[in-house]
Amino acid sequence: MSGAVRGSDPVNGYRVLEQVVQLPVSTWRYHWDPPHVRHLGPMAQDWWKAFGIGENDRTICCTDANGVAIVAIQALHRELTELRDEVAALRAEGSRQGQPDHTEFEKASEPKSS
Fold first, then answer.
1. Cα separation, 4 vs 59, whole angstroms
2. How confident is the prediction along the chain (114 residues), in pLDDT tens digits per residue?
3. Neighbour-count burial of 47, counting CB atoms closer than 10 A to its CB (0-12 exposed, 13-18 middle, 19+ buried)
4. Cβ atoms within 10 A of the Cβ of 60, count?
5. Measuring CA to CA, which residue among 62, 61, 64, 63 is closest to residue 19?
6. 44 phi-psi bin (left φ>0, alpha ψ -120 to 50, beta other)
7. Which of 11, 63, 103, 110 lies at 20 to 30 Å from 37 by C-alpha?
8. What's the pTM value of the predicted model, to 2 decimals?
9. In terms of DSSP H, where are the helices of 1-114?
10. Which letter does DSSP use for residue 33 in this model?
11. How far is CA 73 from the centre of its chain?
């Protein structure tokens, strides 16, 4: 931990993920932006209401946005790992009971990585 940081507290990734899912996100522009410029993200007031982090309800700090994104990704990864483990256990149980393996079908339905 950096000498500049103090008061570090643990974060519940699943709670953060639920807040991210509920957070309204829209496109918008600042009044000084030219008409063709658009931004994408939550409103600072909604961010403040959801997370209560940062300096105020008028801005979203990049560090906070990055932190929320990382924690939410970590929670999703844990959920995915748990689901994969559950599927593997169910497959093993099914093969012990002589049920057909649907692995080829499931591989065909997985999203392709680019």
1. 22
2. 678 888 899 999 999 999 999 999 999 999 999 999 999 999 999 999 999 999 999 999 999 999 999 999 999 999 999 999 999 999 998 888 876 666 666 666 677 765
3. buried
4. 21
5. 64
6. alpha
7. 63
8. 0.77
9. 13-22, 44-51, 62-96, 103-109
10. S
11. 4
Inter-residue contact 5 to 63 (CB < 8 Å): no
Q: Which residue has the tokens 């950096």?
A: 2
Structure tokens at 19: 């807040």
Distance CA 58, CA 45 (A): 6
Burial of 68 (0-12, 13-18, 19+ CB in 10 A): buried
- The answer to whether the Cα torsion of 84, 85, 86, 87 is positive or negative is positive
